[in-house]
Amino acid sequence: MMDSPYKPSIKHCSVLLRTIAGNISPNLDLVFQVVNKFEATGNSLSKSVYDARRLEDAAKVLNEMQANGCNPDIKTWTILIKGHYSANEVDKALIIFSNIIEKGCKVDADLLDVLVNGLLSQNKAIKAHQVLEMTETR
């Protein structure tokens, strides 16, 4: 499949990644090959899941990957948080952010931009200020 002209759909990529993540020792090279093949077709895996409003599925895949030792990067978390804001799920976005902070992940400017602008678009200026304070103390 990796060298063929076959273009996997969102559904097929999700199944492949879940299967890989479910193994006792996941093959990270295979994960990258699947994602790279999907993105070579002009798609973004994280963006596709977000566009399809399959945020819960994305969260499950991320949890499975983490359980098997494959930790997502800050960009992946940023896209997931952005998806929750887009779906008016501010509380879920803030829970994910709290989890990121608890895990000791380094927050970048893109994530802060998504968090603050998402909160401000929901008229939650005080929460936006609290987020900024939270990141400054770390």
From TrEMBL:
PROSITE patterns: PPR
PPR repeats: from-to residues: 73-107
GO biological process, one term: RNA splicing
Keyword rRNA-binding: no
Keywords tagged on the record: Repeat
InterPro entries: BIR6-like, PPR_rpt, TPR-like_helical_dom_sf
UniProt cross-references to PANTHER family, sorted A to Z: OS01G0970900 PROTEIN
Protein name: Pentatricopeptide repeat-containing protein
Organism: Lactuca saligna (Willowleaf lettuce)
Top-level taxonomy: Eukaryota, Viridiplantae, Streptophyta, Embryophyta, Tracheophyta
